């Protein structure tokens, strides 16, 4: 039975205790909140793109003050993570009256709520936006739609997840939710290099996704560079050859890790040139990247490449460390799901988006898998009735 979930906001002190008031934040399924304790205002009530200050930010608390109890509740569906996968799952489960609770993260893995998409300047390949839309804007649109459909969103990072108990336990610094089902949508973080200019020119000519950004006007008819030696680097170089005047493939070793067929395909392309034993020293430019200083790690010689774009193709790190081995993972750390489905090695736990997709890693494919996870969770719950 659904009921209103109240959050308690501390508004002042009285006789050593907190005077509090309840504020409605949404509804949850199952047995509702069993224990609601006084807790400071968190970023749960603000957009991840404009986090506000808690009303007790300047309050001095005694070092001997008792720890604040967790806000405890129960839910039919808890979604860990956001972005297109998480929000699609939230929209579908909310419309199914499952009253999902989403923990979208508070700079989890160093990325804003919304995931990798928030680091993209222009999104031009997501249906429904003929003029394109910025990454942060589309993520805020996803978020608002989830809220409009009835999802509850907390801008908090999950610190403990227990998938050995039933119901499952999902915990943050201030909350403990017991969930009948859990959808993991924590994504994967593209690896970046730490060289001079890497931060300055990020999304100003430096990207980690050629398919996402390579068709942008800034990268057309200019020399481009790809860093990496695997199949992904070959694929990105071939993709960029459609737009750039030339594509350099920089690899720090003298041999490639890519499959022979991909190596041959890239080597035969007239626009692609390989620079082996080569590492980046720095990126330079004005408002956007204009050149790259590189060094041969065998001879020590440094040269400058005039380029208009740099793409990292050195892999991704799926955000699965917090699972602590409770789900089956691939050798690269991605969640293993049943073929053609989102179900994991633990019944009632589903995975959607880049956290289980090491191949496509697109916003639209993530959204599709979020839909699948929501429908599977709904069927799982229905079978328990």
Main pleated sheet: 7 strands, mixed
Label the overall shape.
elongated
Total strand segments: 19
Distance between the termini: 13 Å
Binned, the helix content reads 10-25%
Order of helices and strands: EEEHEHEEEEEEHEHEHEEEEEEEH
Give the class from helix and strand content and strand pairing: alpha/beta
| Rg measurement, Å | 23 Å
Mean pLDDT metric: 85
Tally of DSSP helical segments: 6
**Which segments are poorly predicted (pLDDT under 50) over 5 or more consecutive residues?**
1-59
Which characteristics define this entry?
19% helix; 385 residues; seven-stranded mixed beta sheet; alpha/beta
Task: Give a description of the structure.
The chain is an alpha/beta fold and 385 residues long. It has six helices and 19 strands. The chain has helices spanning 83-95, 135-149, 210-213, 231-240, 260-268, 363-384, and strands at 3-14, 17-28, 71-80, 101-103, 152-154, 160-162, 168-171, 175-184, 188-190, 206-207, 223-227, 246-250, 272-275, 278-285, 289-296, 302-306, 309-312, 316-318, 349-351. α4 (231-240) links the parallel β11 and β12. α1 (83-95) packs parallel to α2 and α1 (83-95) runs parallel beside α6 (363-384).
